[in-house]
Design goal:
Layout: H1 3-29, E1 30-32, E2 35-40, E3 43-47, E4 52-63, E5 66-76, E6 81-94, E7 97-109, E8 114-127, E9 133-144, E10 149-160, E11 163-173, E12 178-182, E13 187-192, E14 195-200, E15 203-207, E16 212-216, E17 220-225
Antiparallel strand pairs: 1-2, 2-4, 3-4, 4-5, 5-6, 6-7, 7-8, 8-9, 9-10, 10-11, 11-12, 11-13, 12-15, 13-14, 14-17, 15-16
Length: 226
């Protein structure tokens, strides 16, 4: 092996070492304003002189109470923006509550802990101390404060045992455990062994802990007893 070939081979090994080192650093200790963020995957490509990292295969992003998985992600190391594609799954865990969301695409900012998920969005909220769950579907979902708050947009539908609520928008706050419905106008329909009832107004506040709701403004009700 001549001198030029040796130098070329050594240079290649150095580049491989640097890429592996950079990948491991990114894997364990990516620090952002929002706290440590970890991204893992089967394969990583460095694009645009290291400004963009592309992760492919079984990709997972973990930050605070939020975990996002996808088939592929692109992470902008300058802006903190992450784009996710294919089989998007979001998991939020806090205390006894677990919340899951699914969508087609995702945009998430590691610095602010905010993002938007689009395409066939579904959410399931499960309480750890019960088997109760709340299901929500919408066209777009905005998350804030690393999943502590979210905003569901367009064709919102919330389903729980005996109850279905619909609206144009819904806002949820993990601290208060309340969902606010606006636009449509919002409507709640309950059907059980006692009969069928409908409630609508300008706004509807649902207390998910007590499983009660309040209708505000231009209240209309319809009840059919069995």
């Amino acid at each position: 092996m001549n001198k030029n070939k040796v130098v070329k081979w050594l240079s290649g090994q150095v580049v491989k070492f640097l890429l592996i080192t950079y990948s491991l650093i990114h894997l364990f200790t990516c620090l952002y304003a929002g706290g440590p963020a970890t991204i893992t995957g089967d394969k990583m490509k460095m694009l645009q002189k290291g400004d963009i990292l592309e992760f492919i295969g079984n990709v997972k992003l973990v930050q605070q109470n939020l975990t996002i998985t996808a088939d592929k992600m692109k992470s902008n190391e300058k802006t903190g923006m992450v784009e996710g594609y294919g089989h998007i799954t979001v998991k939020y865990s806090s205390g006894t509550e677990n919340r899951y969301a699914w969508g087609d695409t995702a945009e998430y900012n590691k610095n602010s802990g905010s993002g938007i998920f689009t395409g066939n969005v579904k959410i399931k909220r499960i309480l750890g101390d019960t088997t109760d769950s709340i299901d929500l579907t919408c066209e777009e979902l905005e998350v804030f404060e690393f999943g502590d708050r979210y905003h569901a947009i367009k064709n919102v539908r919330i389903s729980q045992e005996y109850t279905v609520a619909t609206s144009s928008e819904a806002f949820y706050d993990n601290e208060t455990k309340e969902i606010f419905l606006t636009g449509g106008p919002p409507k709640v329909v309950r059907t059980d062994e006692k009969g069928h009832s409908e409630y609508s107004g300008d706004k509807i506040a649902i207390d998910t802990k007590k499983e009660v709701f309040t209708v505000l403004g231009n209240v209309k009700t319809k009840m059919v007893m069995k």
